[in-house]
Fold these 4 entries.
Entry 1:
Amino acid sequence: MNKVSPLSAEEKKWQQNFERKLDQVGGGSSISTPFLDPRQLDLAESVLKQRPNLSYTVYGGYPGAERNAICIFPSQHKSALPAVTAVKITWPGKTDELSHRDLLGAVLALGFRRDQVGDIVIFEDSCAAIMVDTAKADYICTNLLQVGCLNVNCNIAEPDQLPLARDDGRDIKGTVASLRVDAVLSLGFGISRSRVVLLVRGGVVRVNWRPINSPSVQLKEGDQVSLKGRGRISVASVEGETRKGRIRLKLKKYS
């Protein structure tokens, strides 16, 4: 059995705040959330499923977005998507001269909170797209002139005009002794199992967006495992056993 932690105090507080915000929806009013990470989205939807008088839409700019906003409205009203658009950023030089962290840091330095910024997708031609609330896009385009030591150009772009719906994951194949999370993380990130154990106990590993506290958590196909500061992996497929009884795995790694 997976030893997944119950709701943390922080998660309970977040969910309670979200429930209070829902009381603002009524009559002709609707509300939109900031960008939610997958765990927050899960918490929000668990509350919304208990509110049959409300309907909602989820949108992060493109299909498969990791961070999404929710638009919530009375169930009898016409649906609408959250106001999300893309800021397209281009720079001179090579694509890898700027990283996801560089771009996020530059936007946050303009005074934005993390939940005001959605996914950041880097393309192969020295450009990237940052998903933001439509109302914030002009400000970013006007004020984001430099990232690191590189001058950048910013323009507002419709997300559906960008090649966003693509799989950026890198395939990793190998074998593990078991489907324990410490074994799978060791394969996916190239670090020792003893190191993984310390990371799990340090609270920086999540399975399907929930924190875990045991390195013996058993994984299955489709599970997502994130390591804070290093990215995440998904168990793409379990491909049988070797003659020595080890399990063949195919993972997808996302930076």
Entry 2:
Amino acid sequence: MTKPDTEDIREQLVDAFEDANYPVSNPMELLPALPNGPATTFESGDFSMSVMDLRNAAQGTDDTEDRFPYETPESLADDIVEGLQDADKLPK
């Protein structure tokens, strides 16, 4: 087993979402920016998740739509990584 690199996942998220029209007010506004649409995956070590699975895993106890709007891809990536860490999908 190879541990996923949290910073690598964060960078992949920023790269994938950087072309969205900010501010974004809901997750559907992000799909056109993704290189493979909803089939886009993020991978590092043993970690591999599609953007759709990632959203579900990162939600935790909070409804992620309550965190919208996002002004930057960095703030969006930070919240996703935090949610994945809280769900024990990524190391802290």
Entry 3:
Amino acid sequence: MSQTVLVTGSSGKIGRAVVAELQRRGHEVRGFDRVPSGGLSSTQIGDLTDRPALDRALAGVGCLVHLAATPDDEDFLTQLLPNNVVGLYHVLEAARAAGVCRIVLASSGQVNWWQQIGGDIPVFEHQPVSPRGWYAATKMFLEAAGRGFSEQYGISVIAARLGWCPRPGQEEEIRATEWAHDVYLSPNDAGRFFACCVEAPESVRFLIVNGTSKPVRETRLDVTVARTVLGYEPAEQWPQGM
């Protein structure tokens, strides 16, 4: 069933792919970002700490896909705290006030970093976390906040632990990092994955789920839950989509 979906971070690499796939499936999509988002007739320009802008963007929205964040380890006080912690607070509270029924939160495979690096693979969603650093710690906070919103307010929340969809400038790094090919997430697969989250059964109340493309050598982040609960099937493999 089609619905109105707000995508924060809609101008980013994953955001553009998610917007395109949701539109292809017949959803009405709005964007929220600090810069204009191409391909959308409805885009709110704003910062994650701008509550009035978030309120305007979320009016009448049924589902929120929250991608916007500082995307890796940066200075905690000036980058991670305002964008990934304070910004998350404003996003969740604005979504609750707007009556959003489902929230999809972009977490990260970095919350299980040391299991992956230490070879304790595949990593399943139910295992204890081992965050790489402060960025991953903010994603742990995101997951915990999402669980609280689901329990307290009855909102369906899906926290997506994503593999590596390299941003511009990271192409050589991922190419030279052999293990990373097994957690690669292509833009096309990212679009399909988040669309499956949006369209997941109403019975899904709170779910943590891994999302990657097909591994090249061995599975590092298990995607069985994504397959069985969301109906997501990876279609691509490193380096497709680069």
Entry 4:
Amino acid sequence: MAEANRTEIQPKETLGSLIKKGNKSSAVAMAGNAVLAAAKGAAAAFTGSGAMFASAMHSLADAINQGFVFVGSVLSERRPSPKFPVGFGRVINIFCMIAVIVVTIMAYETIHEGIHLLQHPAEAASGFWINVGVLVLNIVIDGAILIKASKEILHEARAPKASGFALLPAAFKNVGRAAPPTRLVFYEDIVAVLGAIFALLAVIIIAFTNFALIDGLVTTLIGLLMIFVAFRVGYDNMIGLIGVSAPQDVEDKVSAAILGDADAVDIKEMRIIQEGRYYHVDAVVELRTGLTLGEADDIMLRLEQNLLTVPDIADAALAIVEDDGKVSWHRRDSEVDKN
């Protein structure tokens, strides 16, 4: 009955409500890259620069990629159904894996172009100030997206807020606890900002020196950084698809919520699986002795309802047993530490 009541009070699920829950970082990245693609395309048409045209296509691919990931984040917010009782959280891992394939292809093409430029250095393109202006715009927009993604990481990880020069280190520290699309945007935009800075330096060096090889070196370096992003994000989403346990701090919050109840004596077993950015809790809880079956059942429902108030806990399935007089939960922790 309690389960039915929880279902009834949930607001109706609509497309609009799902879109509002979609990943904000990927939506911002999609819009930002679309603007960059248009600006670079206009610059390429005006200056005739093949490198700028290739960069415009790169930004366009990024915009499409992030749009694809945003759609995946929206679909992953759908509620569990009788056919899919654990929900759709892992859908975003699938979409991010497809995005990783796109990034890998783009990385290969970038490295291939870099090697070609090393073998056959190109002459400096016309429109120096146009190229500089577009690259500065690139740094500003991707920098803003990176800041947005960094703040989103701290929000999703429930970490203390940070600002200024402390923001990026704090985001790096907590990136593993962020949602898959936020991690993808974060890593991609680090490469995008570094790539724009390197490209700007290359444009300036080529314009004032004869060191034309810098263009090929920078292009190859950007491609290698993209390969790193593909492997990093690919690994994170691969283990997400397999099913990965929750971080230690989430486990600590869940155990504290259970053992904070006066009738819960111990946790015999507990498993917390991460689905996208949500967690599913399965646990066997030991209750104090002397309870009737009806009282124990009420306590179990109360514990499940309390767990659902913990941020990002999607569902909790608890089993109850009588206290056996042993401290199972703490003994398990000590055994894990010894291993």
